[in-house]
Queue: 3 jobs
Job 1
Amino acid sequence: MLNMTRTLVRASLCTLFFAALPLTLHAAHPLVSDDTGTQGRGNLQLELTTEISHDEGPEAEETAGEAAAVLSWGASDNIDVVVGMPFGWYDCSQEGISREESGAGDLSLELKWRVLDVEGRGLSVALKPHLTVPTGDHDRGFGNGRVGGGTTLIISKEGVLGQLHANVGYSRNGYGSSEARDALRRDIWHASFAAGINVTPQLVAVGDIGVETAEEQGDHEHPAFLIGGLIWSVSPDLDLDAGIRTGLNDAESATTWLAGLAMRF
């Protein structure tokens, strides 16, 4: 009985892992780094994205995916209100115990405020506070079970050849179970740097590198990632994107495939 209990506890870490996945919204998928761009007063953008990853380790094998719908509305020329709803699924096997689940995650609310534009230099600064509402089923591994929040500082530089973006962010996570509170950190820091190169007027090659605080208590290897991808502007109101995200250490998923589209109204 004791051995079975220990095994079930280990398997439950799969649920804790996916419950703790950050469901922050990204601006120009497939990038993680956000930019300071806003939609403009009264304009709307709908972004549909999907991500699929697979990990194999000595103790567990995990396949996970997430699809998200993100709606951005221009409250003014320099302020966007952003709402996002993710839907996730995972299949986790550990020591002969397999768990497969799917469901909606936590609703995300953001306010992107471009606070500074340096005229003639293409330099701008934005703040992006965010809030997560516990709409997901925490017991099944979707969402944290409590309200969370944080903010991100964004700096963008536009040039003839492309763009540069730097992000520094902080999130304070709330967890709805004592197991998650004991196993996972509440304070998560994130830093990333992205670049886009204008290959043609319609095609942009993008890259992103970043690191964030490890979520498990006592884990001192912080996940670091590298992303490469393309964004194709089919028309002024439609973008298609694809990319691949790879881990730079064992704390990050080995490979994640990314795809999405953005429609503006």
Note: Confidence is low (pLDDT under 50) at residues 1-13, 15-26.
Job 2
Amino acid sequence: MTLSHTWRKSSYSSQETNCVEVGRVNDGAAVRDTKDRSAGYFTTTGPQWAAFIDAVKNQRFE
């Protein structure tokens, strides 16, 4: 597994709480907590990440 050294903060994260960052991993994504980067990260496959993004865009978590 190859992790990108570039992390991006989610545009859905608030400024002070609930912050997450996303990095590219092979054909998927890695996600970590901005406030606790040393805790590590979890990874998803490309199809899993696409399904998650689709669910967010369609407000399935509201």
Note: The longest strand covers residues 3-9.
Job 3
Amino acid sequence: MRFRSAVLGHGRRRIAGPIDFELGAREFLVVAGANGTGKSTFVRTMLGVLPPLAGSVEAKAARFGYVPQRERLDEIWPFSVLEIALMGLIPGLGPFRFFDKAARRRAETLVEEVGLGGLASRPFRDLSGGQQQRALIARALASEPDVLVLDEPTNHLDVPGERAIFELLGTIHRERPCALVVICHHLEPVLRLATRLGVLRGGALQAGSVDEVLRAGALEGLVDDGFTLRAGGARETGA
């Protein structure tokens, strides 16, 4: 995936750019930035939901899996965990076709993979926040994505829940042939896993290896919802 002098925005409103950036296969990219700097716009442009105002975004027929912010979902969904995972297989169905035994087995395997094997029949609305996030990750993985995109996947989770989600993402990164793109404002735990860091600030994207971006001071003084973004602590390579 490559951004070529891409200008990001809504309608005629320019939010960021021009951006030149390339996401390699199997990279783990963390995107940071204060509110309003264009993090969600960057992701929506990457997904093809928003066209760039200028320049281009080349995806080379990449398949995307997307995990939205959980609080944006209607929790009265009358679906089970297994049915949530099956939703990710819908694009692969032909017209007038229904889920067969192979699809259900595939969904059951994904539910097991994300750690919800004993909860396949549990209603989504009855799950904890961390369990709901795992179900949404299973849905996103169903399409065998080339790029898995997660928008604030640990919002409103406690520290153990946040740690568990990042451990799951680390396992996915190690074991699956896909790139991960994670928007996150609590950086310290996720930067232990990331291979690259991108910071949106003042309409520009500063991206590189985590160490390069930190040494350049891209996070200094950056505030998101009143929380200063820090990346303290030693990085654990290969985590």
Note: The radius of gyration is 18 Å.
